[in-house]
From TrEMBL:
Domain of life: Eukaryota
Annotated Gene Ontology cellular component terms: phosphorylase kinase complex; plasma membrane
An annotated Gene Ontology molecular function: kinase activity
Family (UniProt): Belongs to the phosphorylase b kinase regulatory chain family.
Membrane topology: Lipid-anchor
Domain Phosphorylase b kinase regulatory subunit alpha/beta C-terminal: residue ranges: 296-429
Organism taxonomic ancestry: Eukaryota, Metazoa, Ecdysozoa, Arthropoda, Chelicerata
InterPro entries named among the record's database cross-references: GH15-like, KPBA/B_C, PHK_A/B_su
Subcellular location: Cell membrane
Organism: Parasteatoda tepidariorum
Pathway: Glycan biosynthesis; glycogen metabolism
Protein name: Phosphorylase b kinase regulatory subunit
UniProt function note: Phosphorylase b kinase catalyzes the phosphorylation of serine in certain substrates, including troponin I.
Pfam families listed in its UniProt record: Glyco_hydro_15, KPBB_C
Length: 487
């Protein structure tokens, strides 16, 4: 937020931020991170941003002051009454040092599977609820009652909605994030400022898709109201994964902030598929830890850190312990493509009269090239839509590498062109069969070793498949096959 304000502040006066630190923050297990931030602010430099700290009364004179001219229109009766806090008298002076404040104990509780209650009566659920003392168990049982009986269904200690609201506050105080997210999803909560963050992403030339990985997605290509965003997210996410309805909102929020301050992290990503980004984060945690925590159990700050590490993987890929296959999976899930990728697809299309086929869907040369230009965002969106049909992230990444190989062959041999459609899936299949034959692999259909091969190796087999296709579709007249040399 500080970087965003520092970059886009255009009003007179300095923007002034007041940070409220409570005892609960000091007791938090992550208070060290807050101390590090305060130390940076005290030094006057926060990650390259100049900061000035001081007493509020000393900063007022140079601050941006906004006069609330409408207040005189309100009568005194309409204004809320605010009572001052009373100063408490203590025999002792309290904590002598920040180190004296005991840290909050990390809340932990056993989790059980409550799916069996989906088929039990509401009476049985109420009885189980009265005997359940864990936050996770209460949230699961209340969620079942909410969807079955409605928010106003009465329980022993209030309505289902009231108990879920109370449970959300309790879980938030105890940092039990999975319960917070579950209850928020059941109550169809919407994070603040989600619509402005969607707009921030769109103005950077990106598109957003909302939907759980492996299921239907909805493209967001225009600004939406909070009500419209809520309807899309909950209709596409909640039935497949109740946690993702909230997690996807958080990711949209973080992406909107990051793209405004560090847009280079999204270079090569035209369509930000939120469900696939979450899948990339799950894969990243799985590859680096044998028993990774679930995304929904991470704190908001930890979730943001995982997102940042995934987005910077291409910059720090050589410094990680990930295999080539694992990097392909993550990059494919991010839908990242090389520089000038869509321009090169255009060049391939211009020399392929019959068009390209991906996953059984045909992208014809005409009227595609006559209705769109090489720099048309609509053309890039059309290409991205075809690649979005691929179900496996690593397979998508291989298809991207194949397109680059086809472009290089055609660029170095301007006399060549494809006289038939290019079925990208068949070319990948042929290259894999050659790889199997050369390496003596008998496992039919298992492409894991191929996906784990360096780019130089996969590119050589992809190039062989492309050349075989070119020779098969070579015309009988015009040039001799004996004279055809592919560099």
């Amino acid at each position: 937020e500080l970087h965003f304000v520092g970059k886009y502040w255009r009003m007179s006066g300095r923007p002034t931020v007041c940070i409220l630190i409570r005892e609960e923050h000091m007791r938090d297990v992550h208070f060290k991170e807050m101390l590090d931030l305060l130390a940076m602010l005290k030094k006057g430099d926060c990650d390259g941003l100049k900061i000035r700290t001081g007493r509020l009364q000393n900063l007022i004179s140079s601050s941006c002051i906004e006069h609330l001219d409408f207040l005189h229109l309100l009568s005194a009766d309409d204004l809320p009454t605010v009572e001052a806090f009373q100063q408490l008298e203590h025999a002792s002076i309290g904590y002598q040092s920040l180190t004296d404040i005991p840290k909050a104990i990390i809340y932990n509780e056993p989790t059980y599977d409550f799916k069996e209650f989906q088929h039990r009566s509401s009476r049985d659920i109420l009885e189980a609820l009265s005997r359940t003392d864990t936050l996770h168990g209460q949230s699961q049982l209340l969620g079942i009652l909410y969807f079955r009986e409605g928010p106003q269904f009465w329980t022993e200690n209030g309505t289902v909605k009231e108990r879920l609201e109370k449970l959300t506050r309790q879980a938030g105080a105890l940092r039990h994030w999975s319960v917070v997210r579950y209850c928020s999803s059941v109550l169809r909560k919407l994070v603040d400022s989600i619509s402005p963050n969607i707009t921030s992403i769109l103005v950077c030339g990106k598109q957003i898709t909302v939907g759980v990985f492996g299921h239907e997605e909805v493209v967001i290509d225009k600004p939406l109201t909070p009500r419209e965003v809520e309807a899309i997210i909950y209709s596409k996410c909640q039935e497949h994964d109740i946690y993702q309805a909230v997690l996807q909102q958080e990711i949209i929020l973080y992406v909107g902030r990051l793209i405004s301050t560090t847009s280079h992290l999204f270079q090569g990503i035209l369509k930000i598929r939120i469900g696939w980004v979450l899948q990339a984060m799950i894969l990243h945690m799985k590859f680096l830890s044998p028993n990774p925590p679930a995304l929904e159990s991470l704190s908001p700050s930890e979730l943001r850190k995982v997102l940042y590490r995934v987005l910077t993987l291409s910059e720090n890929g050589s410094n990680t312990k990930l295999t080539i296959h694992e990097r392909r999976q993550i990059e494919g899930a991010l839908c990242r493509v090389p520089k000038n990728f869509y321009d090169r697809v255009w060049d391939i299309m211009s020399r392929t009269p019959e068009g390209i086929i991906v996953e059984g869907h045909h992208l014809p040369q005409q009227p595609t090239l006559t209705e769109m230009t090489v720099y048309d965002l609509k053309f890039a969106t059309e290409v991205e839509m075809f690649l979005s049909r691929v179900a496996l992230p690593e397979y998508r990444q291989i298809l991207v590498e194949l397109i680059m190989v086809v472009y290089l062959i055609l660029e170095r041999n301007p006399e060549l062109s494809f006289n038939t459609t290019i079925d990208m899936n068949k070319l990948v299949e042929e290259s894999f069969l050659m790889y199997q034959k050369d390496n003596g692999i008998d496992r039919e259909g298992d492409m894991t070793l191929f996906f784990d091969s360096p780019t130089t190796i996969t590119a050589s087999y992809l190039a062989r498949a492309v050349m075989n296709h070119l020779l098969k579709c070579a015309p009988d007249q015009g040039y001799s096959r004996d004279l055809c040399i592919i560099s």
